[in-house]
Amino acid sequence: MHTQSLHKHTAATFDHLRLDGISRSFGDRRVLTNVGFSVPRGARIGLIGENGAGKSTLLRIIAGVDEPDSGTVARSARTGLLWQEVPRDADDTVDDLIERALVEFRLAEHELTDAAEKLGSSASDSERYAAALENAERLDVWAIDARRDRVLAGLGLDSIPRQRRLDAVSGGQRSRFALAALLLERPDALLLDEPTNHLDDSAVSFLRDELTGWNGPVLFASHDRAFLDEAATALIDLDAGRSGRGESHGVTVFGGSFTEYLDAKQAERERWEQQFAAEQDELKQLKLTVDVTARHVNHGRGPTDNDKFITKFKRARTDGAISRRVKDARGRLDDLRENHVRKPPTLLSFTGIPTGSHARGEGTALLAVRDVCIRGRLRADRVTIEPQTQLLVTGPNGAGKSTLLHVMAGDLRPDRGNVARRRGLRVQLLEQDVRFAKPDASARQLYEKALGEKRAGQVPLTSLGLVAPRDADRPVGSLSVGQQRRVALALIIAKPPHLFLLDEPTNHLSLSLATELEHALGSYPGAVVIASHDRWLRRRWNEEEFALTAE
């Protein structure tokens, strides 16, 4: 640890994590503001928030990999971090990675063997052996090889030779090996960044059970709603705009399940909408009082000679009351204009499909897949897409879910079989990995080109709630993966196709946006085909399903 960072990080023997006043900026962009919370021993805290809220940054700061601008972190010296992108050396093998994780256990085993061999009559030999035996028992070194095999099998890695180089396995397999190594190392505290990425259902269940039995504190950032619901004992929300006034609250701690969190968020939005509507009504009434009331006071008929005095007295009292009322209204109006809640963001929705196309006519399917095969990648016997079809494509990794969507989109030609499309059919695919042909173009430029200047003016890009104003004119190549997916989704939302294909649509989207997207797709004005391993989505799907099996 660098000497200069000692005031910011305390790494010692702790059975908890504690953060106080953590702030971090990148250039002129503030990512974290005055973040403080603690994770006690045995707690499993889910870290949630919008894309760019600083979840990964915060985990790196806690681990000591990054430095905060201000604030302190108290953590154990044995705190382990799982990165989203796994660092690796080019020549490392799988076994190198695993054995580095087991070095403490191997050293303890070697020390016990050496101490046993050198046992003599001296007290120091006996003391050394007793200490080595106690340490070996604490680490349970005799079971470490069995544990290694169990962890690798639990994460679906037991069939991959351990002498294989890390750069020769897939990115998903490399991430799973990194997770296996971290679990085998058994640090005092666990920091996990999207730990269920690249895990199938059985591997997710294995990880959930591992974390449930973990003795130390666990803090994990995740977009996996089902995993949050199953594994987290509490949630920490980094979203700073909860009240609608835009002020920063640091974090919000929620002590319930993710399902309960969604219910609380829905109730919070309803209160927000009600407060916004009430304040807008009050603003109208106050403006009326200030602008109209003072000019339209009717004092009735003019006074006679006999009641001039009393009329003058009453008028003075009336004018004074009106003046005070207008003054109070003007003060309240100024305050409300300055401090009213902002309008709740518009929920995600799709505009109608343009008329005048033959693709929505009655009588025949939009698209029909018959006996399609791509060797080693896909086998699909019969899939029919009607104008209002809602279809979920499921299957294990490697079954060809993404391949099927590309075949439907016309990007891939099958080796065998037929794909029939209705004349005039417009299909768009939201891919897992978005690639823009012109990465130097801004999101706004791409949007205007796709929709036309007139349409883009009627429905501005930033009005969709997917691209922040500060990002609209940045080159799309400089945006994060999640932000690029938002841009791609915006292009489709503003101009919906007859057939909308979505490949793992909830990947890289915030929890709230993923939930909004699912609700919006339920009323999509055309046909929808989704390929997803998202357990949350699959468990709530009530429409058609098409299951693929691995070749």
From TrEMBL:
<dbReference type="InterPro" id="IPR050611">
    <property type="entry name" value="ABCF"/>
</dbReference>
<dbReference type="InterPro" id="IPR003593">
    <property type="entry name" value="AAA+_ATPase"/>
</dbReference>
<dbReference type="Pfam" id="PF00005">
    <property type="entry name" value="ABC_tran"/>
</dbReference>
<dbReference type="InterPro" id="IPR003439">
    <property type="entry name" value="ABC_transporter-like_ATP-bd"/>
</dbReference>
<dbReference type="InterPro" id="IPR017871">
    <property type="entry name" value="ABC_transporter-like_CS"/>
</dbReference>
<dbReference type="GO" id="GO:0005524">
    <property type="term" value="F:ATP binding"/>
</dbReference>
<feature type="domain" description="ABC transporter">
    <location>
        <begin position="17"/>
        <end position="274"/>
    </location>
</feature>
<keyword id="KW-0067">ATP-binding</keyword>
<feature type="coiled-coil region">
    <location>
        <begin position="262"/>
        <end position="289"/>
    </location>
</feature>
<keyword id="KW-0547">Nucleotide-binding</keyword>
<keyword id="KW-0677">Repeat</keyword>
<feature type="domain" description="ABC transporter">
    <location>
        <begin position="359"/>
        <end position="550"/>
    </location>
</feature>
<dbReference type="InterPro" id="IPR027417">
    <property type="entry name" value="P-loop_NTPase"/>
</dbReference>
<protein>
    <submittedName>
        <fullName>ABC-F family ATP-binding cassette domain-containing protein</fullName>
    </submittedName>
</protein>
<keyword id="KW-0175">Coiled coil</keyword>
